[in-house]
Amino acid sequence: MPAIPESSAVIADVAVENDYDGFAEAYTAENETSLLNAYYVRPAIVDLAGDVAGRRILDAGCGAGPVSAALRDRGAVVSGFDRSAKMVELARQRLGDDVDLRVADITGPLPYPDGAFDDAVAALVLHYLEDWTAPLAELRRVLKPGGRLIVVVNHPILLKMVHRETDYFATTKWSDEYNFNGQKAVLTYWHRPLHAMTDAFTAAGFRTAVISEPPPAPEAHELFPDEMARFPSGAFLSFMFFVLEAA
C-alpha cells in the first residue's frame, strides 16, 4: 500500500490491473514526500539494512529508485529491476547510467547469476502476487549463502481491520482506489496470514531473522500532525517488515 487509500473494496473475482506504467509519474511524485513511503517504509528499510557500505544489493521491484538511492548514499553497490518500463526510466533519471537497472518480472527467471548479491530488498512487491514460490526461489538463487532479503508487505491484519467480515486465514484478493498526485488508480493485492508468509520463506530456503513493526520516522509527527494525531502512541500498523537470511 503506497499511500493512504481513498476507498476500499474486497474484490474476489474481478482482476484489476496494477498499471504502474500508466500512473508511474503521478505515483512517484506523490510518494517522494508521503508519510507512508518517505517517512515510514524507506527509513525503516535503511535501519534494517544497517551498514551497507560496499555491499551488493538488488532492489527487486525498484520503482523509481528511492530505496536504491538511499542505500547507494550509504555506500551500497545497487542494482534494480521493475516490471514497469516507465518506472525503470524514472529510476534511471534518478540514479544515472552507472547503476544496473533492468526491466524484468519477479514472477519469472531473473537476469542475474547465482549468488550475485549480498542483500536484496523486495519492498511493497510480494503482496501483489498470489503465489510467492517462484519469486522467493529466484531471490534466494541470486543471493550468496548468508545473504539477506528485506521484505516489506501489507501487514496481515490490515484487510481484517478494514473488512471485519473477511477470513484472516484465507488467501484473499482485494483492491483499493488511490489518488496519486491527482490521478486515480486501483491497486489489487493478495492478503495472506502471517504463518503463510513465514512458511513460504522457510520453504524457499530462508531463515526469518527479524519481524518488525516499526514506528514512522520521528519527523513525521511535525510534518504530518493531523494524520499522526490519529495515533496517540505514535505508531500505526500498515506494513510488516522481515529480514530473512539465505540458508
Automatic annotation (TrEMBL):
It holds the Pfam family Methyltransf_11. Keywords: Methyltransferase, S-adenosyl-L-methionine, Transferase. This is Methyltransferase domain-containing protein. One of its GO terms (molecular function) is S-adenosylmethionine-dependent methyltransferase activity. CDD domains: AdoMet_MTases (cd02440). GO terms for biological process: methylation. Residues 58-151 form the Methyltransferase type domain.
